């Protein structure tokens, strides 16, 4: 099963999940304050440095995680070039890369049960109101967990299409991808149920 | 027998029927299972997997009752997860978490253990199989056979008295099958092994042959398998499930 979690041990693994998430929030807000291309390039360089601390292999992994982003980067720059403001486009693109790379860094180096705990802590006010927050907290984490799985499934369907067709992959795969997602959801639900579902889990 | 039937692990199935829409998967099934090693054998679509899912409490019967060690496994999930564990056919359908340790610890937390106890328990289970260095491995980086082993360790960590195996060897090569089989054979827990492959249950205490949702044979493994294989030989290509 595909996951965002990295196998390479990094110093970031030892940090508390809550600290990392708070730093991510702060850094992302900071990125929106930087306005010039030069400042933004500095931001990207800083993020690259963070990735380089565990080593070049980790940086390569990080770059691979960013692959889906390049389309948007190209779009943003192209759009601004058409609007004769390429520099603004470059700034936005750099900001996008830096922000997503930082978010990925947290995901790659944080255990999921720790993330669940942070989410559960953030949901404490709702729990005070009498809401059962366990399913909600779990759902948020499962979304993050299964996005790469769904992307992998989609690319397998594309392969199945290309194996038997010279034409480009068409919109017809949208429904099978959706059905596959529902199927996956049922499997996860069953796996959860087989081990007690959401009962009694995560005592505060 | 009846006195022993309520003992820790035994499975009491009384008049169970299970349907999916208009298709009847199991018809009025009554069985008491208390042997240590039980094989459930049958063709594709004979109701084997449905039976495993019923015993694991994943689905409810449409009629009849089903208890494991006196627990209604579908209604009382909290008690059920202490009684029954299930090893799915496809490990990717079983693994919820991205790293091995979290996957093992999840079940322990479900049993009410604290986070640190659950982590310790996960490490102890990994140590038992000599896989201590797997604890922070991402599940993604493991081979199919290794993922099967992760699933087995996750089930064992919860110490259920009954373990259901749904075609646990499908897709595994011969040495991996042999190793996994060795682990399974050495377990003290009661095993209910669902399979279409007669060789997988050789040496078991009892075999139950399901056909079209009914019991077609029940008894010592050698005897049941002989009749099962004869029936499979007799089935022409026209009967194939294609």
Mean pLDDT of chain A: 85
Structural class of chain B: alpha/beta
Derived from helix and strand composition plus strand pairing, the structural class of chain A reads: mainly alpha
Strand portion of chain A: under 5%
> Total strand count of chain B, please?
10
Number of structural domains of chain A: 2
What key attributes describe this structure?
heterodimer; A: 204 residues; mainly alpha; 0% strand; globular; B: 242 residues; alpha/beta; 6-stranded mixed sheet; 4-stranded antiparallel sheet; 8 helices; 26% strand; disordered N terminus
Spell out the blueprint of helices and strands:
The complex is a heterodimer of chains A (204) and B (242).
Chain A: H1 17-33, H2 37-52, H3 56-65, H4 70-82, H5 86-109, H6 112-122, H7 124-128, H8 134-164, H9 174-194
Helix pairs in contact in A: 1-5, 2-5, 4-5, 6-8, 8-9
Chain B: H1 2-5, E1 11-20, E2 23-33, E3 37-42, H2 48-55, E4 63-68, E5 71-72, H3 77-83, E6 84-87, H4 100-110, H5 115-128, H6 144-157, E7 162-166, H7 174-185, E8 190-195, E9 206-211, E10 214-219, H8 221-234
Helix pairs in contact in B: 4-5, 4-6, 5-6
